[in-house]
Design brief:
With about 350 residues, the chain is an alpha+beta fold. The protein has a domain at about 225-340: Enolase-like, domain 1. It is about 25% helix and about 20% strand. The strands form three sheets. The chain has a five-stranded antiparallel β-sheet. The chain has a four-stranded antiparallel β-sheet with strand order 11-10-9-12. Strands 1-3-2 form a three-stranded parallel β-sheet, with no helix packed on it. Helix 10 packs antiparallel against helix 11 (about 285-295) and helix 11 (about 285-295) crosses helix 12. The protein is globular, with a radius of gyration of 20 Å. The termini are far apart. Bound molecules: flavin-adenine dinucleotide. Flavin-adenine dinucleotide binds next to strand 2, helix 6, helix 7 and strand 8.
């Protein structure tokens, strides 16, 4: 590991004033420290934000919830309000990593964890994300864990977070504090930038900006929520494909649908067209198949990850069958109760 300065921030303005070029905030450290040991990330300064008061709370907010950036993944998954009103989030969190890591990992750190593309993790390999204009060793390489949507010629890395997929389906917003002291909130699709020709730019965050919270909108009391993750091992493995779904029925018709996908996108993936074509329709295998066609229309695959097309299609159909009552509900699906 390269030498670096360690600074501890005691307040948000303190953190912002300490942050400059070459600085990284550290929260749980479960991703940053691994990357520093591999010299994939080499910050000159690491600013510890764990001492800042008030960032570890989950509070009611405008009918929904405000989740402080330092709320640990384990605490968020176990929170009674989350389990009752946003079970999709609780399930996505519990599908990620291990209990030890979830005890340490934070909400903000989980959102900003880096891709698990094996070429990004290996400094001996060319990677445009790690080293702009170096090239992409993933071309013609092992692509099993790589994205098939939102990729570019410069980068095929997938976003690894399970939590962010559920948050995308929930239409969560991220609260950001700027170095000028101003706060803004952005939707997840705005937070995460697609790679294009600049895969090293992953988010809309400016240097020194800090995520302070995630805001969940008011829950949908009548929606069925589910999270399904398909992976190589039953635990401790990143998603090959995952689906988060909130589906509300009106009699025999789908009233609202919000789907998001993990393992396949350069960012947690959602497609407004897919949701819209499901709404107002009676559930059927044929409808779900058409939705999968639309979702995957722009997918770019190679021999190593072409299986993700069929896997995504089957996951979408299975989740929608369950959520619309076409098949008996099984583990992974909950009815929402209103927040009290
Ligand atoms: C073996 C293993 C298996 C895993 N499996 C999964 C899995 O299946 N699914 C999954 O989703 N995840 C998985 N993870 C990833 C894990 O969830 C992340 O490492 C964790 O969520 C990162 O959170 P952290 O608080 O430790 O972040 P840190 O490592 O502290 O930070 C990560 C990044 O976020 C930045 N950052 C942190 N907080 C802020 C903030 N408030 N504002 C601005 N920047 C900030 C840091 O500067 C750093 O760049 C796994 C990790 C490991 C090691």
């Amino acid at each position: 590991m390269r030498p670096f300065d360690y600074l501890r921030a005691n307040a948000l303005d303190d953190a912002a004033s300490k942050a400059g070029d070459g600085a990284q905030f550290i929260a749980g450290g479960t991703n940053l420290l691994d990357l520093m040991k591999l010299q994939v990330m080499t910050p000159e300064t690491v600013i510890d934000i764990n001492n800042i008061d008030g960032l570890d709370k989950i509070e009611p907010h405008e009918g929904g919830l405000k989740i402080g950036t330092l709320v640990r993944n384990a605490d968020l998954a176990a929170d009674p309000q989350v389990r009752r009103a946003y079970p999709v989030l609780s399930r996505a969190l519990l599908a990620g990593a291990s209990s030890q890591i979830r005890n340490k990992a934070t909400t903000g750190g989980n959102l900003l964890q880096r891709t698990r593309c094996p070429y990004f993790y290996d400094p001996a390999m060319a990677c445009n994300k790690r080293d702009p204009s170096a090239g992409c060793a993933a071309k013609g390489g092992v692509s099993r864990m790589l994205a098939i949507l939102g990729t570019s010629a410069a980068c095929r890395a997938a976003h690894p977070s399970d939590m962010a997929v559920a948050m995308r389906a929930l239409d969560a917003r991220v609260e950001i504090l700027g170095t000028d002291g101003a706060t803004r909130t952005v939707a997840l699709d705005e937070l995460y930038q697609l790679p294009g020709e600049t895969p090293e730019i992953e988010t809309c965050l400016e240097p020194g900006e800090i995520i302070t919270a995630v805001i969940l909108p008011a829950p949908q009391p009548n929606a069925t929520q589910s999270y399904r993750k398909i992976r190589d091992r039953a635990s401790y493995a990143f998603a090959l494909v995952s689906v988060a779904a909130l589906v509300e029925m009106d009699g025999e018709t789908i009233k609202t649908a919000s789907l998001a996908f993990g393992g396949i996108g350069a960012r947690p993936w959602a497609d407004a067209q897919v949701n819209a074509m499901l709404e107002g329709e009676p559930p059927s295998e044929e409808l779900f198949g058409r939705a999968a066609d639309v979702l995957l229309a722009d997918a770019v695959t190679d021999e190593g990850n072409d299986f993700k097309r069929e896997m995504t299609r089957r996951a979408l159909v299975a989740v929608m069958r369950e959520a619309t009552g076409m098949a008996p509900a099984s583990t992974g699906t909950d009815k929402v109760e209103a927040l009290t």
